[in-house]
Amino acid sequence: MQNSWIRPEDIHNYEPWFDVVKLATRMHDSMDRVLDAYCTGKYYGNLLALFEPGFARAIYPYCIDNTKFPSDWLKKQHHVEKIVMSVIIAGVYWI
After folding, report:
1. What angle (nearest 5°) sits at the alpha carbon of residue 82, between those of residues 55 and 45?
2. Domain that residue 15 falls in
3. Is residue 74, in this structure, part of any structural domain at all?
């Protein structure tokens, strides 16, 4: 499990390792919204609206409500990743 995206609320967790973060805004039709979300560390709305253009439209009318994520979502995700990796390393697979 590996993400190619980081929620604005989780960006501070990466500050010890990175001074700069590259945002996919070059082709985005709402660059101000993306920059505001990551600069403030908060976003209220469809999380897909911050990603590459077209992501939100691709699954319309569904959305990923960013306010529904628990505050410890990133911590829980990393915990699950560690479990999955330990299972893979141990050679145990479930299908």
Report:
1. 30
2. 8-69
3. no
Domain assignment present for residue 83? The answer is: no
Tell me whether residue 7 is exposed, middle or buried, using C-beta atoms within 10 angstroms of its C-beta: 0 to 12, 13 to 18, 19 or more. buried
Half-sphere exposure of residue 87: CA atoms within 13 angstroms, side-chain side: 11
Domains identified in the chain, total number: 1
Residue 90 lies in a domain: no
Q: What is the pLDDT of residues 39-95, one digit of tens each?
A: 999 999 888 888 776 667 777 787 888 888 888 877 777 665 565 555 555 555 544
Q: What is the pTM of this model?
A: 0.68
In a domain, 93, yes or no: no
* pLDDT value at 1 more than 50: no
Q: What is the dihedral of CA 21, 23, 77, 82, to 10 degrees?
A: -50
| Rounded alpha-carbon distances, angstroms, from residue 44 to 53, 75, 89 | 18, 20, 38
